[in-house]
Amino acid sequence: MNRKTLVLPAVIGLLAPVLAACGGSDSGSGDSGAIVVGTTDRFTASKDAPAPLDPAYAYDVGTWNILRQTVQTLMIQPRGEGEPVPEAAERCGFTDTGNERYACTLRDGLKFANGNAVTAADVKYSIDRARSLKADSGVFALLSTIDTVETQGDREVIFHLKTADATFPFKLSTPVAGIVDPDDYPKNKLRDGFDLEGSGPYTLKADVDNGELVKAEFTKNPDYKGTLEVNNDKVDMVSFKDADAMGKALDKGDIDLMTRTMSPDQIRELSGDADSGVDLVEMPGLEIRYLGFNTDAPTVKSKAVRQAMAQVVNRSELVSKVYGSQAEPLYSLVPATVTGHSNSFFNKYGEPNVTKARSLLNQANITTPVKLTLHYTTDHYGPATKKEFEVLRDQLNSSGLFDVGIKGTPWDTFRPAEKKGEYDVYGMGWFPDFPDADNFLAPFLDADNTLGSPYDNSQIRNTLIPESRREADRLSAASSLTDIQDIVAGDVPVLPLWQGKQYVAARDDITGTAYALNSASTLQLWELGRGVSG
């Protein structure tokens, strides 16, 4: 069996073809056992983050990929992208012309995995709980346009919004809007540890070692009612310490599929090896990487320093040296394939230019070289992150305008420190909550933003974001969205670097790999099945 690279369409909203990989003799756990999926995501319960799987707290792609299998939402993003469709709901929709009143009717007979009925009161409880707890992850900000939640009987839920929000159906498809049982989730505190119940397609058994989830066992929920077709009875997700260990497990047949995060070298090898029972599937992705700034920190408080960095950084060289064809330079927080994208950073700064950067610093009376430390996480965005920051360091230092060092820290330490404002400059990635330009802007720029950034632009927050959300036709929102991106390019509270593709590598008897991930990097385990050898 030859190894194949299957490349799926790169246009959001375009329905990808259904691809079923064919014949291989080995599998991760035998034909009758669980499908075993490998990941390098780490799931740790710590003093700083004791409740990693509580929907009111979780806000990273790894934990969301556990919640999406187990905790049901009113809406869900459809198989082939596009507008959200009802999931726990039978129907949902705006009931006014101003996009400020949104009503949903629950499916009849919904049950939590513990047997309790799911009611409209549970939906209200879950949403109100997330809004009131205001976890420091910032995930509650996705629900910020809600004013009040009303119920009528056991199946009707009505959301009254503070302002028009055409993106609200997308927000109801995210795990923070997941429906939880009040018996299991206290109103006034987060639920610590890895216990997790819902009404989704799977139940979860967590295998925990020393405060870390090492394996998540997903078993098909016999009481599940929703839009999803579950193509397997059991999936085990195993967490590996790094991409090399995950790759070796796939080669040995200990796992059936590996996903984020593979190394660039692994992807290149998988693409070129024509003699293996493993298929590599390349999919469009909306992952972005960027530098964030604590704009109150003395070293980068001056806009001129941040602008000079934007003028020096060479994205094309960075991508070429580290990621090759697996990524593309990005000149905005909004990826190039998303409606509303503008190349605002390129429009303002053009090609890298040290002379222009020096002029910016001189005009602001900034003494050079500017001494900085770039912080990055060693274990969250893949093994190439260190090399990426080495290239960035060298680019900045070679200009003679900066004296930059780099420091790597594990994610369970890095993320709390970043949120507390302990880093002046730090590297982050973003996997969208939903594929709309609003979700690449508001989470970084609005009040209660996910970075805890002190940057506050009143025009963006009070005028442009609300203005863009009034437009149900997202093309009509392009003017407001472009204005936001232009302001960001001028002020540089964040510095976008690149956007990436995404990949799945699977033994070739695993079917459904074309839909294993959607463009927002949502892991859709229910799509996976086993095929026939040959």
TrEMBL record:
<dbReference type="GO" id="GO:0043190">
    <property type="term" value="C:ATP-binding cassette (ABC) transporter complex"/>
</dbReference>
<dbReference type="InterPro" id="IPR000914">
    <property type="entry name" value="SBP_5_dom"/>
</dbReference>
<dbReference type="Pfam" id="PF00496">
    <property type="entry name" value="SBP_bac_5"/>
</dbReference>
<feature type="signal peptide">
    <location>
        <begin position="1"/>
        <end position="20"/>
    </location>
</feature>
<feature type="domain" description="Solute-binding protein family 5">
    <location>
        <begin position="83"/>
        <end position="449"/>
    </location>
</feature>
<dbReference type="InterPro" id="IPR039424">
    <property type="entry name" value="SBP_5"/>
</dbReference>
<dbReference type="GO" id="GO:0042597">
    <property type="term" value="C:periplasmic space"/>
</dbReference>
<dbReference type="GO" id="GO:1904680">
    <property type="term" value="F:peptide transmembrane transporter activity"/>
</dbReference>
<protein>
    <submittedName>
        <fullName>Peptide-binding protein</fullName>
    </submittedName>
</protein>
<dbReference type="InterPro" id="IPR030678">
    <property type="entry name" value="Peptide/Ni-bd"/>
</dbReference>
<comment type="similarity">
    <text>Belongs to the bacterial solute-binding protein 5 family.</text>
</comment>
<keyword id="KW-0813">Transport</keyword>
<keyword id="KW-0732">Signal</keyword>
<dbReference type="GO" id="GO:0030313">
    <property type="term" value="C:cell envelope"/>
</dbReference>
<dbReference type="GO" id="GO:0015833">
    <property type="term" value="P:peptide transport"/>
</dbReference>
